[in-house]
């Protein structure tokens, strides 16, 4: 009979409970397991001497930009082949005139041409513990501002409770915590003998803690809390507390299981950051260093590992071209890469074809007036059990006339598929109808909208690879290692799926391996 859990099993159990593979990283630290996070930013690549190795970089996402930047500084020659007409991969900020190249649903963003009217259609947040991507923000001079996932003035709305009407997050949390602590107080007060070795003073302190946390009265009952805000008064007259909602009704809402603990997840905890002016500010700050190395509209057709390099054929402006690199760093999404002609080993190809990328949809809505500010909301997220799931309020442009909301954001495949089957206008109509349940005045203010369905985006076909424990054990290490002189990279080759940090770390991992091979080569020739 097996005794206990292995460290790996424990890590994956924690990740499932937390709802994110990023939890693995934090839990592993606590268990004393060495992390695959590189210290590369403190130990730059060594300068190459003699003939400059030529590195082919396939794709122009964040991992590609990091690679081209670092390798070029170390004296390598770099050539970046990007199939689309833009740089940045899923780092995409939409503004006036931008193209959304969704297969079967091409859109042009028609937001007003104003600096503060933009929408981060891909990544939008930078956690404080993502040291790699923050390193480049610091080094390249990307200005950051605080991003707030949590605001008690935002709303939670559930069709199944409170007649579908929204309530402030602060009210919900105050009431459910109050009733929960009332139950705990009753349990403590009626327990003569506690299993834990509490003495009388411990017991009294615990009881006072429960009373304080739950805002209980002297009879240890929950009658309401100032944490919910005042129903009336509070300035020139004594404040009158709001009447608590019923505990049973509070539990019927699913907010306690999701939005209420959202900011406790390892990759969503405050403080988070976002670049001033849009997430693509990171891309813009890389460009002066790497732009001359990038070939756009260069669609890879064939990848062939050779004894001393990698040959790549690509189509550009109707012409088939061939190039050779001493090494190849490849961040082409796995769904697309599996369909490209190559000579990778069978086991490598088999696992690569099994990589499964996620589905995700976002909506950006331009409002002719920042109506949410009249409701005392200046940032944060409202939650709903409807398909839109979330509404984000911009932290930038406060007091400006207009603003852009994130009007919906879902990562649940069934929900994404429902939206994907709609036309652009049908999607926006559905988002407005759902948003009205939170903000009844929605249609009065929303004047323009765009949607982006990432698994239908040309040259992307999905979001971060979903590494469950079975597929991780079967193929992650195999795919992380090079086959010949070809390396897979991008956030698809990290457990931080969907995060730019995963892209950075995967690039560092591959470049350090190239450096080892170059050092070995120099040592042999010496």
Characterization of the model:
This protein has 526 residues and is α/β, with parallel strands linked by helices. The protein folds into four domains: 35 residues, no CATH class; 176 residues, FAD/NAD(P)-binding domain (3-Layer(bba) Sandwich); 172 residues, Polyamine Oxidase, Chain A, domain 2, CATH 3.90.660; 84 residues, de novo design (two linked rop proteins). The strands form eight sheets. Strands 14-2-1-18-25 form a five-stranded parallel sheet, with helices on one face. Strands 10-9-21-22 form a four-stranded mixed sheet. Strands 17-16-15-19 form a four-stranded mixed sheet, with no helix packed on it. A hairpin with a 2-residue loop joins β16 and β17. The protein is elongated, with a radius of gyration of 26 Å.
How many domains?
4
- The number of helical runs is 16
Please, what is the CATH homologous superfamily of the largest domain?
Answer: FAD/NAD(P)-binding domain
Structural class: alpha/beta
**CATH classification, class level of the largest domain:** Alpha Beta
CATH level-3 fold name of the largest domain: FAD/NAD(P)-binding domain
Low-pLDDT regions: 1-38
Q: What is the helix fraction of residues, given as a range? A: 25-40%
Q: What Rg is obtained from the alpha carbons, in whole angstroms? A: 26 Å
Sum up the overall morphology in one term. Answer: elongated
The CATH architecture term of the largest domain is 3-Layer(bba) Sandwich
Quote the distance from N terminus to C terminus. Answer: 56 Å
């Amino acid at each position: 009979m097996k005794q206990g859990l292995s460290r790996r099993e424990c890590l994956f159990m924690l990740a499932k409970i937390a709802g994110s593979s990023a939890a693995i990283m934090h839990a592993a630290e606590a268990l004393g397991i060495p992390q695959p996070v590189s210290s590369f930013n403190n130990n730059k690549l060594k300068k190459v001497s003699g003939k400059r190795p030529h590195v082919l970089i396939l794709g122009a996402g964040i991992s590609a930009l990091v690679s081209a930047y670092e390798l070029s500084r170390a004296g390598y020659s770099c050539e970046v082949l990007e199939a689309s007409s833009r740089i940045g991969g899923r780092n995409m900020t939409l503004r006036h005139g931008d193209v959304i190249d969704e297969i079967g649903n091409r859109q042009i963003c028609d937001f007003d041409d104003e600096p503060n009217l933009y929408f981060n259609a891909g990544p939008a947040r930078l956690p404080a513990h993502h040291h790699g991507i923050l390193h480049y923000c610091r080094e390249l001079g990307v200005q950051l501002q605080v991003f707030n996932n949590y605001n008690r003035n935002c709303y939670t709305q559930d069709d199944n409770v409170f007649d579908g009407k929204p309530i402030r997050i602060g009210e919900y949390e105050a009431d459910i915590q109050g009733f929960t602590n009332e139950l705990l107080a009753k349990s403590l007060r009626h327990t003569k003998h506690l299993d834990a070795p509490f003495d009388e003073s411990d017991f009294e302190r615990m009881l006072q803690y429960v009373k304080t946390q739950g805002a209980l009265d002297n009879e240890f009952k929950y009658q309401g809390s100032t944490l919910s805000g005042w129903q009336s008064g509070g300035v020139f007259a004594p404040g009158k507390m709001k009447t608590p909602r019923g505990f049973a009704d509070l539990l019927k809402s699913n907010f306690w299981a999701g939005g209420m603990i959202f900011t406790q997840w390892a990759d969503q905890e405050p403080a988070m950051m976002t670049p001033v002016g849009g997430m693509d500010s990171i891309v813009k700050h890389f460009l002066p260093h790497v732009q001359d190395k990038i070939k756009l509209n260069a669609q890879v057709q064939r990848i062939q590992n050779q004894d001393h390099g990698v040959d790549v054929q690509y189509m550009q402006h109707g012409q088939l071209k061939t190039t050779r690199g001493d090494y190849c760093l490849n961040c082409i999404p796995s769904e697309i890469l599996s369909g490209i002609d190559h000579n990778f080993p069978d086991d490598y190809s088999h696992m690569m074809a099994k990589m499964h990328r996620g589905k995700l949809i976002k909506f950006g809505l331009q409002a002719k007036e920042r109506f949410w500010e009249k409701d005392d909301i200046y940032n944060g997220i409202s939650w709903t059990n409807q398909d839109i799931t979330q509404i984000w309020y911009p932290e930038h442009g406060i007091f400006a006339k207009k603003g852009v909301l994130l009007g919906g954001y879902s990562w649940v495949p069934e929900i994404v598929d429902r939206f994907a089957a709609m036309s652009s206008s049908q999607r926006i109509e559905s988002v407005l109808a759902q948003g009205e349940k939170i903000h009844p005045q929605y249609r009065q203010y929303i004047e323009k909208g765009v949607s982006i369905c990432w698994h239908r985006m040309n040259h992307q076909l999905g979001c971060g690879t979903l590494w469950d424990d079975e597929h991780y054990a079967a193929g992650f290490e195999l795919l992380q290692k090079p086959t010949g002189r070809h390396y897979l990279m991008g956030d698809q080759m990290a457990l931080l799926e969907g995060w730019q940090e995963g892209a950075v770390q995967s690039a560092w991992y591959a470049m350090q391996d190239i450096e080892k091979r170059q050092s070995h080569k120099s040592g042999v020739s010496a």
